[in-house]
Design brief:
The protein is 19% helix and 27% strand. By secondary structure, the chain is α+β, with helices and mostly antiparallel strands. A hairpin with a 6-residue loop joins strand 19 and strand 20.
Length: 372
């Protein structure tokens, strides 16, 4: 059996990972490795992380009456919570929890459709409870786990405080990633809102995630936690991106706030650091490779690489001075020694600001973003 859960939280507080952890602790049967699955970043009803939860249960459908009771008593009351966002003007929706149960793992296309686009509830799949959260719950159950990372999540009792020395040690472990911003050394593992998460530590194996989680919890300057759990995740998988694309630059426009739009469609935000600088540097006829997600007729860039860029300059005179045009079809002349020549240009490659793939700073990337 496969059990999925989503949308029990809002910006006012709560956390679906903690609700799911409490459900797992109460289950009357054995279960497999819990899964935390990030979904389409533009889903209208998303919270900031937009994650759904799933797990394989080792039981049969006799679990349904127990789940009925648990749903009514513990999860349904979470419906309706809503709060204003202070970092975005996007409309906020009330929590609308959903839970699903499948006899067999559903087909993986349900995951791919939900991580790459907007889906609605299909009421004909499995056994279902609740509202819109069923969309993410179904997708989480369908995740094929082809490209897996792990996250150790701990939940706080009171204040949110992680020992900075322990965080530095964990950040230097071989196998953890996105723990701190290398530019500022600011931690990236702790949310700033009212949710109960103390931290989430990301790693390439479950063993490293577990060791790092315990190290942070047991550090002397970390506040008390109520519990922790290691989740298999699709974070850093790039599953939301189908492919990269190649195009020539036909226009480059700087927008208000420092954002850049290429070819009237490829949008690069000012917060994108080096990628934004590279976009500003590009000129018409340059060739680039890029990837990103399309939304509202624009592609929000997540990665960019220069393929070719050339510039045309007048030749250098034998005296070392660059020659200049004397007028249309009148040839060129050295402004210093007055030597003249035919009207011609020299083509030479431009040296880009950055080589290879350029992506936003680590604290500005999506949870799903893969490092190129």
């Amino acid at each position: 059996m496969w059990l999925g859960l989503d949308d029990t939280d809002s910006l006012a507080g709560g956390c679906t990972t903690q609700v799911f952890d409490q459900l797992l602790r109460a289950l009357p049967c054995e279960f497999g490795e819990p899964r935390l699955v990030r979904l389409w970043p533009f889903a209208p009803r998303r919270t900031r992380g937009n994650a759904a939860l799933a797990v394989e249960l080792f039981c049969d459908d006799s679990i349904i009456p127990w789940l009925d009771t648990y749903w009514t008593k513990n999860i349904l009351p979470l419906s309706g919570e809503v709060s204003k966002s202070y970092h975005s003007d996007r409309e906020q929706f009330p929590a609308d929890p959903g839970m699903v149960l499948f006899e067999n793992q559903p087909e993986e296309e349900l995951y791919w459709s939900t991580v790459r686009g907007e889906m609605d509830v299909n009421p004909n799949l499995g056994h279902q409870w609740g509202g819109k959260g069923r969309i993410g719950a179904i997708a989480a159950c369908a995740w094929p786990a082809n490209n897996v990372t792990w996250e150790g999540i701990a939940w706080r009792i009171g204040q949110r405080k992680v020992c900075p020395e322990a965080l530095e040690r964990v950040d230097n472990l071989d196998g953890t990633f996105l723990c701190r911003d290398p530019r500022t050394n600011r931690g990236l593992i702790a949310p700033r809102g009212p949710c109960p998460v103390m931290f989430g530590i990301r790693a390439i194996t479950p063993e490293i995630a577990l060791d790092a989680t315990k190290s942070l919890i047991n550090a002397k300057d970390t506040a008390d936690v109520s519990g922790y759990r290691i989740f298999a995740t699709n974070q850093a998988s790039g599953d939301h991106i189908t492919q990269t694309h190649i195009t020539a630059i036909t226009s480059n426009t700087m927008l208000k706030g420092g954002h850049v739009i290429l070819n009237d469609k490829l949008l690069c935000f000012s917060e994108s650091g080096d990628m934004n600088l590279l976009c500003q540097w590009l000129k018409v006829s340059d060739e680039i490779e890029y990837f990103g997600m399309e939304f509202a007729g624009q592609i929000h860039l997540e990665g960019l690489k220069l393929i070719s860029s050339t510039e045309f300059e007048r030749p250098i005179c034998q005296c070392g001075t660059r020659m200049k045009s004397m007028g249309s079809q009148q040839g060129i002349r050295c402004p210093k020694c007055k030597l003249t020549g035919d009207d011609n240009w020299l083509e030479s490659p431009r040296t880009p600001l950055f080589k290879g793939w350029v992506q936003p700073p680590v604290d500005k990337r999506r949870h799903l973003a893969r490092q190129f």
